[in-house]
Amino acid sequence: EAGVVQSPRYKIIEKKQPVAFWCNPISGHNTLYWYRQNLGQGPELLIRYENEEAVDDSQLPKDRFSAERLKGVDSTLKIQPAELGDSAVYLCASSLFLGGLNSPLHFGNGTRLTVT
Amino acid sequence: KNEVEQSPQNLTAQEGEFITINCSYSVGISALHWLQQHPGGGIVSLFMLSSGKKKHGRLIATINIQEKHSSLHITASHPRDSAVYICAVGRGSQGNLIFGKGTKLSVKP
Predict the structure, then answer these.
(1) Measured by CB atoms within 10 angstroms of the end CB, which terminus of chain A is less buried, N or C?
(2) Which residues in chain B touch residue A88, judged by CB atoms under 8 angstroms apart?
(3) In this complex, is the C-beta atom of B10 within 8 Å of any C-beta atom belonging to chain A?
(4) Secondary structure in 3-state letters for A23-86
């Protein structure tokens, strides 16, 4: 089966510019996650979708970050404007969440963002 | 204090050595995940377990629910095992995972 696909793989932008990341989850997975991972740290959740509904966006900096998952399949994460501190790896993951339990998460390869 | 603590943070081993990475957590969980992350960012799920022990090839994961502790063992380690190993816990009705900071393993030939 095809894995979680993310693009772009790398992105370098100047601060104050906008940037967008795209994720296509594994077919049939109803839950999609966006994580941010700083160097030497574990991933931190930004937003979790169940189908097209954002069920946990408490950690998403809503003044500059936005996300959408139209039709409950692929998703985009946007930052506008980007700040130096946004430099990180942005990971997308998907799983099948049923009955209160997750199937193992499948991660994409991530987008490494560098803000200069 | 983090809800998920891993030890050691960094580990260097010689090829062939038996390796143990530990994970302790302070919250009630529905399942614990062990993940592997190679340089470049890709994360692979190794195990998901809620009790007992699982084995896959040279990898063994154990969990003690009463002690809130899990271990990941690698037998006959190889340089290709060099990666960051991350412990993460799932909390029942919450679909999110809480991640540890990872253990960076380097296996020297």
Answers:
(1) N
(2) none
(3) no
(4) EECCCCCCEEEEEEECCCCCCEEEEEEECCEEEECCCCCCCCEEEECHHHCCEEEEECCCCHHH
